[in-house]
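Sample intake sheet
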Amino acid sequence: MAHGFIVTEWTEDQGLIVKLSYPENLNVDLDDMMRIFYAHITGAGAAGNVLVRLEKARSNVSSYFTGLDSDMPVMINLMLDLGEDPEMFGETVLNEINEGILKYLKELITNVSENYEIVKKIRLYMKNSLILMDRLKNLSKEQRLAQIYSSEKARAILEALQQKPLSRRDLQGIIEEKLNKIVPNVEFILDPFIKTGLITQDWVEGSTDISLFLLNDFTIFRKPVHKLIEDARKGIPTPEIGNIYLNEVKEFFTEYKPDHEDNLKIAQILMNPDNYDYITLLRERAYPLNKIPKAPGQNIDEIGNFLKTLESNRIIKLIKDTKESIWVFLLTDIAIHTFYPEYLIEKIRMDRMDGKLDKGVAISHLEFLEKIYKK
C-alpha cells in the first residue's frame, strides 16, 4: 500500500533537505533520501522516475525528480510497502499526481505570503491522492483493461503475446529491449492481465520457466449511449433538450474515427475511479448540473474539476434549457470489448511448422484456447 509522500529539495548551500511530507509524522533517514537522490543523478541528473528499495525504512520508493537543471530541483517520493511496484497504480495516474504536487510547489515560490494555506492545500491533495491510489486496487474489469491500455509496459506485453506464447524471462527481455528500460517486477504488470482473464500461466514439460498464454484480446472505443438516445427520442428530460442532445450525438459520431491517441485518452479517463463513477452514473440518465449526485466528502470544486475533464475530452456535454438550467449528458460512452483471439490458431500452426514454437508450448496454447472457445 502507499504510505505517503516525502518531498525533498536540492539546494547548493544546504544540500538535500526535506521540504514537506504527508502524513506529517512520515520520516525517512536522510541517508536513504540521499540514496534516492544519487539514483536520480547517476548520469546526467535529468528529470525522470526511479524505483529504489530502502532496506532500513522497509520501503520501496517511487521517486520523481525534476532534474538538476530545473528552476526547482525537487524529488517527489511516494513511499510504498517493501516489494511493491508503482506499476500497480498505472504510470498515467502517478504522472498526474506528480504534476499536481509540482503545481502547488510552484505556487509556494510565487505566493510567499500565502505559504501556510498552500501547504495545507498540498497536504489535502496528497491525502486525496492516497485515497485514490487505495481505490485503484479495486478496479472493475473494464477499468483493469483500460489500465493495460494506458500503460506503455502493459501494451508492450500485450503486443508481444499477440505474436506467440512466451516464458516470463523471455517476455521481460523483449519488453526491456523494446522500451529500452529495466522492468524489475514484471509480475505487477501482469496482474491486470490475469485478473481480467486475458492470459494464463502454466508450466510446460521440459521448460525451466513459467509460460504465458494469451486467451482473450480486447479493443477500446467510444460508442453512443443508447439509453439516453431512446430517452431523448421520447422527449426526456424535455423535447427541446432531447433534440439538441440527438443533434450533438449525430454530429460527433459522423466525424468520429477511433485512433490510438484518442483510445489512450479515453482509457486513462476510464481507469480513474472518480471519472468512472460519473460515467457509470450518467449512462442511465441526464442530470441538472445543480443536482448531480456527489460522493461523501466531495465539494463543488472537486465535482467541477471532474466534469471539466470529461467535458474537455467530449465524454459529457452540458446543455442549457429555456429556463437557463444546465443539464449534464453523457455524450460518448467508453466501451471495452473483449474477443476470442481466433487469429492465434493459424499463427500457432504456422510457427510450429516453421520451427519457431516448441511443440509442448504450441499444444498447451491450443488446449487453453479450446477451453476458452467452449466457454
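Comment: The longest helix spans residues 115-135. The chain has three domains: 2-138, 141-216+340-374, 219-336.
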